[in-house]
Structure formats: structure tokens, C-alpha cells
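Q: For a teaching session next week I want to show students how multiple molecules come together into a single three-dimensional assembly. I've collected the sequence lines for a complex. Could you give me the predicted C-alpha cells for the whole thing so I can convert them for display?
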Amino acid sequence: MTKKKSIFTQEVIVGIVLVALYFIFRTISSDFGKYTTFLSMMDISYYYALMAIGVAFPLITGGVDLSIGTGMICYALAGGCLIRFYNVPTGLAMLVSILFGLGIGLANGVLISVMGLPPFLATLCTCMITRGLGSVVTGSFAIPWPTAKQDNGWFHSIFKITLADKTKLPLGLVWIILLMLIMQFVLAHTRFGRYTIAIGSNKEAAILSGINVKFYHIMVYAVSGLFAGLASIAYAAVIKTVQPGTGAGMELDAIGGAIVGGVSASGGYGTIYGTVIGAYVILFLKQGLPYIGFNANMQQIITGFVLIGAVTIDIIKRKVIK
Amino acid sequence: MGEVILTMKNIDKSFPGVHALDHVDFELKRGEVHALMGENGAGKSTLMKVLTGIYTKDSGTITYEGREVEFHNTHDAQAAGIVIVHQELNMVGDLTVAQNIFIGREFKKGFMIDDRKMIQESKKLFDELHINIDPKAKMSDLTVGKQQMCEIAKAISHQAKVIIFDEPSAALTEKEIEDLFAIIRDLRKQNLGIIYISHRMDEIKVITDRVTVMRDGAYVGTLITDECTKEDIINMMVGRVIYEDPKTHSMVPADAPVVLKVEHLNAGKMVQDVSFELRKGEILGFSGLMGAGRTEMARALFGADPKTGGDIYINGKKVTINSPEDAVKNGIGYLSEDRKRFGIVVQKTITENSTLATLPKYMSGLFINKGAEKEVTEQYIKELDTKTPSADQLVVNLSGGNQQKVVIAKWLVRNCDILIFDEPTRGIDVGAKNEIYKLMNRLAAEGKSIIMISSEMTEILRMSDRIIVMCEGKKTGEISIEEATQEAIMDKATRDIK
Amino acid sequence: MENIKQNPVVKKLGFNRIILFCILLLMYGVFSVIIPGFASMDRIMSILNYTYFLGFLALGVTFVIATGGIDFSIGPVMFCCALMAGYTLNTHGAPVIVSLIMSIVIGFCFGCFNGYLVAFVGVPPFIVSMATMNIAKGLGSVFTKTQSVSWPQGNDPSGKGWFRNLVKVGDFPVGLLIFAVAIVILYIVMNNTKAGRYILCLGSNKEAVRLSGVNVRKWQMLAYVICGALVGIAAIFFVGAYTTVQPGLGDTYNNEAIASCVMGGTSMAGGLASIGGTVIGVLVISLLQEGIMALRMTKEVQMIITGIIVIVFVYADVSARRRRN
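A: Of course. Below is the structure for the complete assembly, covering every listed component.
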């Protein structure tokens, strides 16, 4: 009963790894320490972090959402089209992008929770469908969102503001941390969060406890979709032109981040702060390795091994405790 | 006993192909413990599921507290004060005790769940029940018995007026059962209506006021517990007389050779320094309470779980067993207590299951010789009297007793000399039980050696030639069948607990 | 309807597979009507080109899904095989036969890697797939210095183009013969050998098979190894038909291969697999891809349709099983 919990949880270890990585890269490469490098890395990090926060919820239920990567592109394309071709105000277009994400999330939820499809397959299908929809909507053309200098490009300043003395501040980081805290709170202290864990740990028990599991299961995927929608705004703010047909594989980086950050691959356990830290570890590897002289493509190989390593350590740790 | 709180009349329920409930009547009074009995598949669980809203009845009426009611889900039933303590534990392992007790109806402070209040309330609840559990402990860290107590606490916390216990004692130790009975007596005093489902005849006599018996989905009758005998109840359940006479002397010849010798077997906390011998043609009973380490001993012996020490000799020769593969090669077969999880591959045919341990023998070159395979399967279907239309039947479609026969066939096809039967008749109805017993006796007479782990005292006394008693991972006694009595066994099985 | 389903012949073939086959014929009919010149030999050859490599991928992953696992690294692994073997052929002047063997060996090694991690270390297949996907893409890029690789044409003066005879000689589809032989062999492996039996049984209940004295880890790993080797073969047919491979791609083929399996009646829960069903599934997707191309629509439209078909088929399967319980 008095089992002492080690303070070296996966979240803490990964946090240490993150800091260590940053300083190692800084030491080896002087370019990496530059503020502009930091800024551009932060730019890229937002949409990954947002996707990771969202997908943590399906992962904790023991499911997965593969549709967030291509979905994100699809929502960004839809919003961009509205601005470009229909002169829709930017704010409204952003709202449409986010709601589009929410809608696909709900569709995933219905397929999985009501129709009983395995999460992997259901979201694989919506992954294909959103990828296709993105191209169909735009007629396979790339869609640029307004640039920061344009009047309707104000949304860029959500993520990066330029002060009077021309220093740029990564404001997006504040939002990420804020959303991380909010979603961590939701996970730990609200019914929705508690039932998310319950579904992942023992769905049958949750049903028999009188919980409306179907509803909450749908909501889990809705959250994932909603965050993919938010990510699409962050993506549009960074990547000048959104290309249809891209986005496949991005979900894997987000999922990988969550897993590295301690979310159990079989469900029932996870934290949002761990997820975000994990996402940044993956991002640092992705962006940082070229700075220290690795072939840009080496990072993919290393990321793969890091993922396996993180999960293997977890497996070994559990075996030792037993 | 007070006035009637619940009446179920003419309840009828059909599933495709099965008439699960055939106009069943049931009545429960306040301050009563009412046993619901019947063989597996008699319809007890279905009746309770209809009551708590998991199933919808086809016809009939439920009157609760004077009003006709119909619940659409467990939530409705709970709100009305009818709760069920499930046989399979219904706990979310990754949440804490308090979080589990209040799951689905958390206290809230604005958006937030008020965890502190939930912990306080859980503490209060446990104090009332005189149980000592930390509400902040993670559920998966508790023992099965403690988890069960939490489940009961959860049921009581619903302001329940009717509590249904579905085989609550199956996983409890003797001590925990006593605690459970104390709680139930307490609840009875508080004028709650209690429905108690169990297969354990002795418990029924101790704790219940009335007994309702069901058979094949139909109501058979209701008796007052004090006025009936065990045999009365059994006769109502099976509609035929069954024999439960104990074995009086060992059937093993005095000069039978030792086929298996286990010395100082160790495996974690659950198996500590267990040594014993098994002789040819012997049925060696392993008795003990739940959690005594018998299954763990068997699994370690079979190589299913790692062992931390000990030597195993087969026919006098030392053997190394590190995996089930090694064990099977040495002629040991294991029939698990949990057939569905460890015994059979339910989605596959009888043939595929029967030859699973012997497949290399049914190969011609690179290919499976399906003809030979089918032949041997059909031979054992006949020999074991397995009830199935054909060898190509999926195992999932068989009854529990016939599934058990398929597992036995698997090891007989393998021609194993040493068979470990772990709770061989769990979840099998009375008729099929006798068949399994006959079969085990026949196997022993043919020279197979059997280790039988059983929690049913009558089974141990009826089948064993010799009995080993375990308690808390240690072997605490060895009794020949001539000297064995329930009291003697129970004394050794509880040595350290009392 | 129920009568048809209970018919022994229908039962043996599988109701869903018959429906799928009807859909295949129907699609072919519709395409032939709405697209002028669709019902030509050229088109069929072109469909077959797609069928070969997708077929080997799908047949491979059928074994993995039968164990209850998943492998969605197969597309990038196929590209990795084609890139590394092709690069060795072009840049280091290796003989063609060596390159072909190399492709299969690389696939085989990836299969061993995946299988070992899943079966012996206990890493969830989903995670292993994610990792391997990254590794395969990275390896392909690093090895070729991020250049695309073109395998020699059939009329290449060096005579290195002979491997294209594996796909077709003149107008004769040699690939179809090889593919047919592979189907027969894999059907037998799945249904009539120890490996297939153990793979299917452990997909259904791994612990019960282990307690029957079977070395389940070995057989579970074997499923991934079979898959890997078949992916290596798929790579050969891919370059035999399409010549050029680019690093960093290949993802879409995972989805198509898995979709083929699932349409054909292989259950994601493991334990149930149909080689014949997978082949029909592959034909449906190949035909769809050709039809969409002929209609001058993008590949993305094909994905939407594939996605919807898979949802319908899986839903039909899931609800049929629910009704049975």
C-alpha cells in the first residue's frame, strides 16, 4: 500500500532529455543558439504541439486518430479557399477551419463509438477522405493564406508579434502552454477527462457504472478533431502556401510525441504536459540534428529509434516493478 | 422481514434462438437476503439484467415500491436505488479507489471534480463498513478481495434499497467472506432487500432467508432456507439426484512409481518452497483458499510463468522447464482455470483446437494432414462424448462443459502423462461436472497422473487420492484421502490467517 | 437473403467476398461504359501493373493482420528497398540479380526488425510501424543522398533491363503468372501449414496457443518476416512497372494495402484472414485507380472512394458480428 512513487516519471525524464538536447545542440552549433533559429523552430512547433495535445485524448482511451495530419491540411485549405475565392473575412474563415476539424472529429467519434469500427481503421479512412477532400475543394491547387503584411493577415500575430523595436516574440508559445494547462486540467479534474481515462482503462466498467460512454467516446475524437482544426490555423500562419496532398505522416510525429511523453500506448494513462514535452523532443530532433552536422534525413532514422527506445524503456520498467 | 419491495411477474425474454426467460416470477422483501440459484444458463443473470435495465424485457411487469417501473439503463436503476455488485470486478484500474466509488456521479465544484470530498466520503463509507482501505490508492494495486469490498462500498453509497450480489464470494478468502457476511447482515438490519446469487450451497444456508430456484430460464420455486435441506435445493436445480459422496480410499496401488517429483519450487511471493511427489495413476488434489498460490504453483511448474528456483524430476530424471514448450515436450498438459483466456481458441474449430499442441505430428511434409487431423478429433469427440454436430464446429458455439472436453482432448491427443486440471469444473453445470469427474477417474485408471486444483471442498474430497493443502504460497499439509475431512483441510488452509 | 447466406457454397466463399467480387465486375462494367476505350488490353495491362506490387504488399500485410497486429510501414519500406537496391545497381554497378536479391533481403531485414520488436520485446505493433516508417524513409534518403532512383529501361544498352521480363514479355503478362503462383503458395501457407495455423490461432488467442506448448513468439515474428520479404518482392514489381522511385514517399500504398485486406474479410482483431479476399480487394483498388486516372481525376478522389468503401465493409462486418452475439 505504501508503494513509493518514483519522482522519475517518464514526464520528468523526457523533460530532462528536452533540456539536455537543447543545450547539447547549442554547445555544438552556434547557429542553433541564435534567436532566429529559436523563433523559426517555435513557429513550426505550434501545429505539432496542438495536434499532439488533441491526439493524446484518443490515445488515452486506447484508440488513435490518424486523420489529424491530412485533416489539418484539409481544414487549412478550406479556410484559405474561403478567404481567397470568396473574400470571407479571415476570422470567419478561421472559425470555419476549426469547425471543419470539429466536424471530422465528430464523424470519427460516430464511426468508432456508435458504429463500432476499430479506431485505427476508422481514422485511416477519414485520413484518406480528408486528404482527398482537400484536393477536391481546391481543385488540386495550392492555397496561400494572406501574408502577415496584408490587411487580412492579422492572424499571424496570434502566434508571433513584432514589437516596436522590431524584436519578434513567439507569442504562440504562450497559447500552447495555456492550452496545455487547460487540457491537463480537463483531463485530471473534469468528468470528461476522468471518463477518458476510464474508457481507456476499462470500458466495460465505465459502461456498467452508468456513464454515457458512447457520448464521451465521441467527444474524445471531437477534441482531437478540434485541435487539428486549431493546428490548421497555426499551420497556415507558418507555411505560406498550403499544398493539397500533404500532411500524411505529420500525425505520426504528433502521436510519437505523445507516446514519448509518457502516454500509454495501450491506453488508460497519460498527461498533457508530458505530451507537449514529448512533442518538443521530437521537434528538436527533427529540427536540431541538421544543425549539429547530421544529414537532414538522419533525423528520421533517429526519431524512429527514439520512439522505440521510449516505449521499450517503459516496457522494461513495468517488468521490473512486477 | 418487512413488506414486499420488489415483485417481478411473468418476465419473458427471448434472444435469437434462445428463450432465456420463460415467464419468471420473483419477489423480494425489505430486510431479506434472498438467494437466487440455478445452474449456469438457468437465467439468473438475465433476470437481473432485465431488472437493472441492461436488457429490455419482452413482456411481464416489475413492481418496485408499489409502482410499476421500467428501467432503460443501469443509471435509471441506480437512481431508483437498485444496484448490482458484479461478479466480474467492475473497476477502472488506472483510477483511485475514491474515483472508482464515485464514478459516473462525481461531486463537482463548478467545472471541477471535487476529489477531496470524494476521498472524505469514501473514508466515511469504509468506516461504516469497518474496512481499512486507502481511498487514494490506485485500484489496480489492491488485492482482488479489497477490490470487491470497494465494489460493495460503491453499491451501498448509492443509497441503495435493493442490492444484488452476483457471486460475490468467488474470489474472496475465508476471512474476507466473513467480513462480507457481516456487512450483509448489517445491511439486512437496515431493512435493505438483498438478492444473493451464488453456487456455494454452504453460504446459502448461512446467510440467506429464502431461496428462489430457476432452471432453463423458468421459475421452479421459492423455499424458506431454514425449512429446506441442501438436497431439496439441488433437486430443484437439476431436476435429478446427483451424487456427492467422497472417495473413501486411494485408488493408487501401493507400488505405483513416482512420475513427477517437485523439489523446492519457488516463484515470487506466491510460491514458496513447494515440494511434492505425484505417482502414476494418482489424482493429487491441491486444496486451499483463493490466493493460496495453487494456480501460480501450477503455472510455474508448467513454465507459463518464470520460477525463481526449484528442481523438477520426471520419472526420476531431472528436467528443465522454462516455457510451456518445455513442459509439453516432457509430457505435461495444463488445463487452465480460465478456459476462455488460456484454454481454447474460441474462434477456431474443434479440430484446430484439438491438435494445437500436437500439430507437428499431423504434418505430411510441409503440409497439415487435414484428414488425419479430423480423424483423431472425431475419435476424441466420440470418446469424450463431446456434444457437437461436427468436428468443424467453432468452439465458441459449445457449452462450457463441452469446451472443457475440447481442452482435455487437446492434451489427450498429445498423449500427456501428467495432466494439471486447474478448477476443472468451474463454470460448468452440474450434469457436465459429473461427466468430467468420470473422465478424470477413467484417465487415472488408465495410468495418467493428475494434479487437480480445486476450491470446492466436495470436489477435492470426491476426486483426490491424496490432498496437498496450500496457504499463502506455502505447502501447509499433506493428507491421505483416508484421513481427510473438511475440517482437517480447512484447518491447514487457514493456518496463518486466524 | 438469409437463405443465400446459408448456402454452403456461399458460406465457403464468404458472402462479403462474393459481394466484393460483384462490385469489382460492376465497376469494370461502369468504367467500360463511361470511358471510351477502357475495355482494352492496354488498360488491363496497366491495371495489372498496379495489381502486382499492391498485391504483394497486401498479401504480406494480411499475415501481419492475421496475428492481430498491424504494419503500416510497408509502403515506405517498399520504397526503401527499391531505392537502396536501385542505387546499388546504378551507382555501384551491381549485377541486376544481386540488386533484386538485395531488395528482397532488405525487406526481409525490416520484417525481422519489426517482428523481433513486436514478438520478443513487446512493443505495440502500431508504435513499431510508426518507427519503422521513419527509419525506412530516412534510410532511403540517406543512402541515395536524397536523389530519386530510376531503374534501367527494358531496352537499356547495358542489358540490365531484363528484370522487366518479370512483369511482362511483349504483351504477355509474366507478372500475372508469378502473382498467381504466389497467391497459390500463400494460400497454402495460410491454410495448410503449421505457420499459417499458428499465426491464425495466435491472432485469436495468443495465450492459449502459448500454453499449448507452442513457441508463439517465433511464429508471431515469422508473420512480420513473411510480410517483409513480400514487400521486398513488391518493390521489384513496382520498379518493373513504374521505373522511378523517390525518397520520402510511399505512405499511400500502406493505406491501399490495408484497405484491400480489410475489404477482403481479414479481421483487424486477428485470427481471421482470407488470401482470396485480399486479392479481390487489391483488384478493386487497382481498377479504381485506373478508372479514376482515365477520368482525369486525381489520386485523391480515389482515396475518398477507397475510404468510404472500407468504412462500409468494416461496418457491415462489425454489425454482422454484433448480431451474431
